[in-house]
Amino acid sequence: MEEVRTARQLVDADGATFILREGEMVHYADEDAIAPLWKGRRFPVGTGVSGVAILERTSVVIEDVYADRRVPHACYRETFVRSLAMVPIGREAPLGAIGAYWAHRHRATPREVAALEALADATAAAVANADLRVRMERAIALRDEFLALAAHELNTPLAAVRLRADALARGIRGAHGLPDLGPLHAALGRLTDTVTGLLDFSRASQDGIALDRAPVDLAVLAREAVEAARSRARASGTVVALDAPASVVGDWDARQLARAVAHLVDNAVKFGRGSPVDVTVRDAAGEGRISVRDRGPGVPGEERERIFGKFERAASPEHVGGLGIGLWMARAIAEAHGGTLSVEAAPGEGAIFTLTLPERLPLDA
Question: What domains are defined for the chain?
Fold first, then answer.
């Protein structure tokens, strides 16, 4: 480990050890020395100098190991050690200790002890951060596993409810005095979109975005996405307009791009709050570009990367619904194609999301 080499160099010692506490034992995990010390061995925490440093949470300086009753002399006779300094790793609940050893009689100076303590503090912080990363990664994995399981479990009863609702609608069509099933179908549609989104997200998180490339006309794809969005936007009074050339063809995955564009348009409708949404398709220097502009509150500069994270939002869920995965999915799809998804915005002026795709094929491909 780098820590033992650094410890030895810091104080010009003849050896150094890195010791970890394992319950009621201490483990001499690594060493760097002129001759073997105790690497790989374990001792009861209360029987040596490392245990003193750990249990008492204090640095220990011993000028002559054979004149100090805290030292297990039998263990030291097989080594070169005559003097030592031992510092705990961590102040509140030490994870272990770092020891420095000299073959000659030497009393570690306050400056040498301070240098070892600084190294120990840095080591404690690094270990804590590594442990935190492991815990966070596990928590994220568990969350994604739960979402995948929940989506699969919800999908089966949801399909059954949709079938019953459709059958009920057919049975009462034309009847009078019976409830309107429109709201039920709308609610089922939203729930279906949520479950589908969770399934897509869980697959993308665990396996990445799989592409089935073929010649795709981005202009045609955008027209279809806008037509679908217009029906969803009608309830909020949002007008979705399209400006596209006749054709912009590239070697892309039509299904995945349709999902990305749908996420961007739905996001614009949601945050535009009834204001117009403009969708623009352009053929630029061998790239296909599609931009979606809303006239909502915009995205402050410091938020423009955060909103592309998993379950991140540009607004509180109290004000805007959704799972917070649409922009993450859209960017993941863009990057799977080797492209980008970015946002330009200013508060109060709306936002422009631009998806750029490379590897456009010639029009006659």
Answer: 2-133 (3.30.450.40), 134-207 (1.10.287.130), 214-357 (3.30.565.10)
Amino acid at 28: Y
Question: Terminus-to-terminus CA distance in the chain, angstroms?
Answer: 57
Q: State the burial class of residue 167 (Cβ atoms within 10 Å of its Cβ: 0-12, 13-18, 19+).
A: exposed
The Cα 96–Cα 55 span in angstroms is: 10
DSSP calls for 282-326? EEETTEEEEEEE--SS---GGGTTGGGSTT--SS-TTTS-S-S-H
Please state the pTM of the whole predicted model.
Answer: 0.52
Is the confidence at residue 107, as pLDDT, over 80?
yes
> Looking up tokens 């623009």, which residue turns up?
280
Q: Which of 57, 56, 51 is nearest to 38 (CA)?
A: 51
Percent of the chain as helix, strand, coil, to the nearest 5: 45, 20, 30
> Helix or strand or coil: residue 351?
strand
